[in-house]
Amino acid sequence: EVQLVESGGGLVKPGASLRLSCAASGFPFSSYTMKWVRQAPGKGLEWVASIESSSTYIFYADSVKGRFTISRDNAKNSVYLQMNSLRAEDTAVYYCVRVDNPIFDHWGQGTLVTVSS
Amino acid sequence: NFMLTQPHSVSESPGKTVTISCTRSSGPILSYYVQWYQQRPGSAPTSVIYADNRRPSGVPDRFSGSIDSPSNSASLTISGLKTEDEADYYCQSYDSNNHWVFGGGTKLTVL
After folding, report:
1. In this complex, do A104 and B37 lie within 8 Å of one another by their Cβ atoms?
2. Is the pLDDT of residue B1 over 90?
3. Do B77 and B18 form a contact (C-beta atoms < 8 A)?
4. Are A81 and A94 in contact (CB under 8 A)?
5. Least buried of A82, B23, B83, B91, by fewest C-beta within 10 Å?
C-alpha cells in the first residue's frame, strides 16, 4: 500500500524557516516524480514544487521561487521542502504527492504550516 | 502563466446529471492533459479523471471527462448523482514550463 506521511509543520513567525519532510513507502520511490501542493484554509489547491526521480529536473511555482527548496533522498525514501522567509500567505496545509504523469495519484494527509506573529 | 476558471458552485438533485466546466485562459487546452480531483471535507484530494477522459481504477463510470477545443475548456460530468458525490472538484493542467495549475474549485451540492 502506498503511504505518504508528512511531518514538520507548525507555527512560525514571519521571516522564519521551516523544513517539511515526507516519508514514502509501499512503492519504488526512486522511480517517481514527487510534488508538494498546498491549500490555504478554506481555499483551493496550489502546486508548490516538483522534483523528478533523479533530482535532475526541479520546478517551482512563482509564488515560492527563491524562498523554497525541494529535495529528495532516494536512499531514505523521503522528499523535503525547505521553506525560508515565510510569509503569512504561506499559511496552508502542505501535501506531499506522488505523480505518475500526468496524474497526482497518491496524496499524503498533509501537514499544517501557520505563519503568524 | 495560465489560469483555469471553474464555477464556484453547482447543485443538482440525486439521480440527475451535472457538468462542471474548466476554461483555460491561454494555451490550447488540447496540448496539455486535464485532470480532475475530488476533495471531501477534511480529506486529501483523490483523482477522478486523468488525461482528459480516463478514469483511475475504482472510479465509477458515472464520472466522465471531455474537452471542447473551440471554447478551450474541459468538463467533468457526473451522472446518476449520489449524495456521496457532494464534494469540491478541482481541474488541473500544466504548461510547457512544467508549471502546474489548479482551477479554483467547484463546490458540488447534491440536494
Report:
1. yes
2. no
3. yes
4. yes
5. B83
End-to-end CA distance of chain B: 37
Instruction: In whole angstroms, give the CA distance from residue A113 to residue A95.
Output: 11
3-state secondary structure A96-108: EEEEECCEEEEEC
Contact B20, B108 (CB under 8 A): yes
Q: What is the mean pLDDT of residues A99-107?
A: 94
CB atoms within 10 A of CB B12: 16
Q: Which amino acid is at A59?
A: F
Q: Name every residue whose Cβ is closer than 8 Å to that of residue B14 and which is 6 or more positions away in sequence.
A: B81, B82, B83, B110
- Among B6, B14, B15, CA closest to B37: B6
The mean per-residue pLDDT over the stretch A90-95 comes to: 98
Q: Is A35 on the interface with B (CB under 8 A)?
A: yes
State pLDDT tens for residues B48-68: 999 999 999 999 999 999 999
Among candidate residues B105, B98, B99, B84, the one with its CA nearest the CA of residue B37: B105
